[in-house]
Amino acid sequence: MLEITDLQVVYPNGNEALKSITVSAKRGEIIGIIGRSGAGKSTLLRCINGLQEVTNGTVILDGENITAMSSSQLQLARRHIGFIWQEYNLVERLPVITNVLTGRLGYNSGIGSFFGYFDSHHRAIALDSLERVNLLHRANFRADRLSGGEKQRVSIARAIAQEPKILLADEPVASLDPELSMQVLSDLARVAREVGVLTLINIHQVELASAFCDRIVGVAQGVVVYDGLPEGLTEPILDRIYRFDKNALPHAEPAPLKESWQRELPNLPNEAVAGV
Ligand SMILES: Nc1ncnc2c1ncn2[C@@H]1O[C@H](COP(=O)(O)OP(=O)(O)OP(=O)(O)O)[C@@H](O)[C@H]1O
Ligand SMILES: [Mg+2]
Prior knowledge:
Blueprint: E1 2-10, E2 16-25, E3 30-34, H1 41-48, E4 56-61, E5 64-65, H2 71-78, E6 81-84, H3 96-101, H4 111-114, H5 120-132, H6 148-161, E7 166-170, H7 178-195, E8 198-202, H8 206-212, E9 215-220, E10 223-228, H9 235-242, H10 259-264, H11 270-274
Parallel strand pairs: 3-8, 3-9, 6-7, 7-8
Antiparallel strand pairs: 1-2, 1-4, 4-5, 9-10
Helix pairs in contact: 5-6, 6-7
């Protein structure tokens, strides 16, 4: 379903955000992408929905090469790519149902779409999506009257209404308190499983990622340093993802003495060696 091969992104200022990312994923998988700030997680998601020009490598989604598409081809491809942002990106003054219907825009053609008219088929899909996140009773509320957790569930419904091949979520719970984060991530994972859509979630909370994802991809300095089950996230693996430069930090433990120094100081007591 998704094949990312040797993906590299160098920004115009010379920043190499992705060095070489190779990941493949199957339909229905729920994958948590973890890594330190600046690791390249958002850049990676932007490459998958074609918002980011790549320097090298390919992204193949359902047999189509996203990295080789023209802008009009990308526009068509994007209707199958659901995106969930940290800050929801709802149209605040519009009702919830209208926000969810915007997920159908890519499929709505003809004069009706020009006036924002969606026929009963589109409306049924939007209502079904709202029901999946348990917000049917909020369909006619203005979006700005919802709580943060409700807003994010509306944005999940909007993405699902796209009937996507892939769902990309960039830190979807970063603006929510810990309890709501758990509820919203649990909803996202449940709905993704119900509809069987491949889902990639950038997330900073390792415990949440482990609780709700089938698989974890750990990114550090633009490369994948872990790809496996959540249970495999041992301390040494977490060191590789989050603390790869710990010896370079000012308060890091001192590096062991070099062998040559030890040879030069063979008879000194341990305290003296430690003080060198
Ligand atoms: N438009 C840009 N121009 C230049 N450098 C950029 C640009 N966008 C991101 N970067 C750099 O690329 C690297 C990866 O950024 P990215 O936003 O993908 O990281 P991230 O893992 O999503 O971080 P965070 O967890 O903070 O969201 C960082 O060093 C960042 O400063
Ligand atoms: Mg990011």
